[in-house]
Structure formats: structure tokens, C-alpha cells
Write a structure and sequence with these properties.
By secondary structure, this protein is an all-alpha fold. The protein has one domain (2-496). The protein is built from 22 helices and no strands. The protein has helices at 2-30, 32-35, 43-60, 63-70, 76-100, 102-108, 116-130, 132-140, 144-175, 192-208, 210-214, 222-256, 261-299, 305-329, 331-341, 353-369, 371-375, 379-404, 406-431, 438-461, 466-487, 489-492. The relative contact order is 0.11.
Length: 504
């Protein structure tokens, strides 16, 4: 259990700043309904932020995971030098190629009204990827404080720029049009300030990491690089397939839904909004991965490694179940916020959120399961799973979006992640058996889904009563908390911080 304590501590150290930074970014995105009255105006921005993850995968080409993997067996400084130089020169090459293809990208993404979005997007991706290995180095060396500062500082600046140029300055200029602020504010940029804020945050993060960047020596080991490329090449496929599964629905929505352009943009804006709520689970998953990936590699040589991985999975699923209930049981709170402070149209489609949230839980479990092919150097199996998942995503989105609109997109996401989770588990048990408590995990997930439907039914009995909805939600959330505490009392007693409450 000491290993679990260590992971819990690392998750806290790396997770808190990750959660903080991503939650600030999440709040900034959730602020869109308050900056923009109608959903269709956000469609172009949604398009840009669906392209960025694809290009991030190509820019990074699996080097972060490879760094953790090869730091166990190779000289860390030599590895850091080689991979950093590789990433630097490839980033220059990719950036030049994207700039040469700028006009084609504008046309392909229907961003003719905002071609400048593409330039800012390219700049953001290029800078962000220069930060990749310095962040990986901090994680590998267990330097959480510096990691936390760099993460949070960048996003704080990002959020500050967006709030300043989309919230504060426009309000000042409404009452005082001749203010000196009119010299630095351009109304035509509009939501483009989201991208400019992002770029400012990325550049500041790069400056904060200057010490780690200066540690790079101009020494390139070609033999080591080839070995790393053989390992990381399948991870590119995994990453691209993962992005297809994650963002394809929003990327193609306007093209496959059988609606006039304005209505399609409206629904895309609504879908992106409800997707952000489901991403609360993803924030937690990403925070966990910050600590888990180096932890899994470091523990791989231990005699009881598989048993440790099984325990990690159990607590991970429990945490995801709590997050699912938080979203599902208190969905009316989000509805009330949108209706009261923004526009009731932004509250449309919230019933789809639990389905997206459950799909994201499956994705999180898949990430946890993926330890087997990373540790056994069978990354191609991860690629095969992801390719099959991407095929499911593509087919179901094309078939279901014209019929069920964004509900169809949510169903496609759910089915894809369910398939990836199940297939990874089955293959993992064949090549790297881990004694997961499968029955217990399925029982927890089933129970929270039943609790959600019970709450849904109770709310239908007393409709349009937010206090009643929140009250029943708190009761059911407390019930699940009590249930888990009874079932896992012995395990929880061994956990840091909370363990003392179960040793009585």
C-alpha cells in the first residue's frame, strides 16, 4: 500500500496544479456563453480548438511517453538532449509546412471569415510543443513545485488576457470610447482574443521553463534517436486515433448534419458547450495521468507491480464514479446558471452530458489499462485498438449525426470508448495479466448509473424545482459515499490524509 500512498502523493502534487490550470482554462471556456449571446458565433473558435489536438500529436510524435520509458534504461541527459533537439527541429519543419498550407487549411476548416485564427493556432502549437520535454523532465525528476508554478502561471496569464479583452476593456470603452484602451483593443478580433490569450500564456510558460531549456546540450545521439523512434512511432497512431475519437464529432458536425449553415453552427456551439461540462471528468483523468505514467514505469520492475496496478485502477474508478455523480446529480445547477446569467439557449442538450461523462470514464479506464502495451513494448496493439476505435467513431458520427444530431455524436463517443476499454482489457490480460477487481468495478459503475436514473425519475416527479433537484442529488451522493466507505473501509484506512478517519 506504500506504493499507492506514493502515487496518491504524486497525484496530489502534480494533480492539483494540473487541475487548477485546466480548471481555470475550463472556466474560461465555460465563460463563452457569458461573453457571447448566441451559440453559433462560437462555431469557428470550436473548429480551431478541435484542430489543435490533432496537430499537437504530430508535433510531439510520442516523445513525452518515450522520455519516461527510456529514462529507465538510458543516460537521462543524453536522452533529454537528443529528444529536445529532435523536437526543436521538427517543430520548425512542421511550422513552415503549416504556414505554406495556410490557405488550404482556411478553406478546409471553413474559417474564411477568420483566416487569422489559423496563424495564431500554428503559433500556439509550435510554442506549446517546445514546452513538452521540459515539463516531462520536471515530472521525471519529481520537481512538482516548479512544475506547478509553470503550469498555473501560464494559464493565469491566458485567462487574464481573455477576461481583459473580452470582458473588462469592452465595458470600459462602452462608457468611455475615447479611453487610451481603444489603442490596444480591436473589436474585429472578437473571440480571437481567446487564441491570443492562449499564445501569451504559452510564451510565458516557455519563459518560465527557460532554465530547463538552457540545460539542453547540442549533442545528438542518432542511434538512441532511432531506437526511440521505433518505440514512439506507434504512439503517433495512438495519439491521432485518440484525437479522432475525441474531437471528430465537433470537427465534421457542420459538414454532416443536414441543416442550414446558421442552424448547424448553432447546434455545434451547443454541443461544444455540453461537451465542456463532461470534460470535468477528463480534467481529473489528465491530472491522474501526470503522476501515473512515470509511476507505472518506475514500478514495473517491482515484484508486486501487477497487484499495485490493480489497486490503482480500483481507486481510479471510484474517483471517476464520484465525478460522474457530481455532474449527473447536479446538472440542474449548470442549467440554472446558464438560464439565469447567460441565455437559456445555452442550457439545451444538457441531458446528453451524462452519456458523454460515462464515455469519458471508459476513456480514463482505457488510459489506465494501456500500461500493459507500454511496459511490454507492444505499442502497435495500442495503435490497432485506437484505429478500430477511430473507425467506429467515424462511421457512427456519419450515420448518427444526421439522425440524432449532437445526441448521435454523444452515442458515437460512448460506443468508441466502450470498445477501446473492453478490447484493451482483453488483450492486456493475455500479454500482461493484472488482477483487476473486475466484478467490483463493474458494480460501482452500474450503481452510479442507477443512482443517476433514480435521481432523473425523482426530478420528473417535481419538475422545475431546482432546490428539490439539488436536495435529492445531495442525498444520493451521500448514499454512494457511505456505500463506498463501508465496502472499502480497510483499503481507505491505509490511504494518506483520509486514512485516519477509517482507523477508529
Amino acid at each position: 500500500m506504500s506504493s499507492i500512498k506514493k502515487l496518491a502523493g504524486q497525484t496530489l502534487w502534480y494533480g492539483v496544479p494540473t487541475i487548477a490550470s485546466r480548471f481555470l482554462g475550463y472556466l474560461m471556456n465555460m465563460a463563452l456563453p457569458f461573453f457571447v449571446a448566441i451559440p453559433e458565433k462560437t462555431a469557428d473558435l470550436v473548429q480551431v480548438y478541435t484542430i489543435i489536438p490533432f496537430l499537437n500529436v504530430l508535433y510531439a510524435y510520442g516523445l513525452e511517453t518515450a522520455y519516461f520509458r527510456f529514462s529507465q534504461t538510458h543516460d537521462k541527459q543524453k536522452l533529454y538532449n537528443t529528444l529536445s533537439l529532435s523536437l526543436f527541429f521538427s517543430s520548425i519543419l512542421f511550422t513552415i509546412l503549416l504556414l505554406l498550407c495556410k490557405d488550404s487549411l482556411v478553406g478546409a476548416t471553413d474559417l474564411n471569415q477568420h483566416p487569422d485564427y489559423i496563424l495564431w493556432m500554428i503559433a500556439i502549437i509550435a510554442v506549446d510543443n517546445l514546452n513538452t520535454l521540459p515539463f516531462a523532465k520536471l515530472r521525471q525528476e519529481n520537481r512538482p513545485k516548479r512544475y506547478a508554478f509553470a503550469r498555473v502561471a501560464g494559464i493565469v496569464l491566458n485567462v487574464s488576457v481573455v477576461i481583459l479583452f473580452l470582458g473588462v476593456i469592452p465595458k470600459i470603452l462602452e462608457s468611455n470610447p475615447t479611453s487610451f484602451l481603444s489603442n490596444i483593443y480591436n473589436k474585429d478580433i472578437g473571440l480571437g482574443y481567446y487564441l491570443l490569450g492562449n499564445l501569451c500564456g504559452s510564451l510565458f510558460t516557455l519563459a518560465v521553463l527557460s532554465k530547463e531549456i538552457r540545460q539542453i546540450k547540442i549533442r545528438f545521439d542518432f542511434t538512441l534517436w532511432k531506437e526511440v523512434m521505433r518505440y514512439s512511432a506507434p504512439l503517433i497512431i495512438v495519439g491521432l486515433g485518440g484525437m479522432v475519437n475525441d474531437v471528430l464529432s465537433r470537427l465534421i458536425y457542420r459538414h454532416v448534419v443536414d441543416l442550414p449553415q446558421q442552424q448547424a453552427d448553432y447546434e455545434l456551439g451547443i454541443f461544444a458547450n455540453i461537451f465542456r461540462i463532461a470534460l470535468l471528468i477528463t480534467i481529473m483523468i489528465q491530472a491522474f495521468r501526470m503522476a501515473a505514467e512515470p509511476f507505472f514505469f518506475n514500478k514495473s520492475k517491482d515484484e508486486n507491480a501487477q497487484r499495485t496496478y490493480a489497486r490503482v485502477m480500483k481507486f481510479f474508478v471510484i474517483a471517476c464514479c464520484f465525478m460522474f455523480l457530481f455532474i449527473g446529480l447536479f446538472l440542474d445547477a449548470f442549467r440554472w446558471i446558464f438560464i439565469t446569467f447567460a441565455n437559456k439557449r445555452w442550457a439545451e442538450g444538457l441531458e446528453v452530458v451524462p452519456l458523454l461523462a460515462l464515455g469519458n470514464i471508459f476513456l480514463g479506464i482505457y488510459y489506465n489499462l494501456s500500461v500493459w502495451y507500454k511496459l511490454t513494448n507492444k505499442n502497435m496493439y495500442g495503435a490497432y485498438i485506437t484505429i478500430c476505435g477511430a473507425a467506429i467513431t467515424i462511421v457512427l458520427n456519419i450515420v448518427l449525426i444526421p439522425i440524432w444530431h449532437y445526441t448521435g455524436a454523444a452515442v458515437a463517443t460512448f460506443c468508441c470508448y466502450l470498445f477501446m476499454m473492453v478490447s484493451s482489457y482483453l488483450l492486456g490480460q493475455k500479454y500482461y495479466p493484472i488482477p483487476y477487481a473486475v466484478k467490483k468495478l463493474i458494480s460501482y459503475i452500474t450503481l452510479v448509473v442507477l443512482i443517476y436514473f433514480a435521481h432523473f425519475g425523482l426530478v420528473k416527479l417535481v419538475p422545475n424545482n431546482y432546490l428539490y433537484s439539488l436536495g435529492t442529488g445531495f442525498v444520493l451522493f451521500a448514499f454512494f459515499t457511505w456505500f463506498v466507505s463501508k465496502i472499502e473501509a480497510k483499503e481507505l484506512a491505509k490511504m494518506p490524509v483520509i486514512g485516519k478517519y477509517f482507523n477508529r
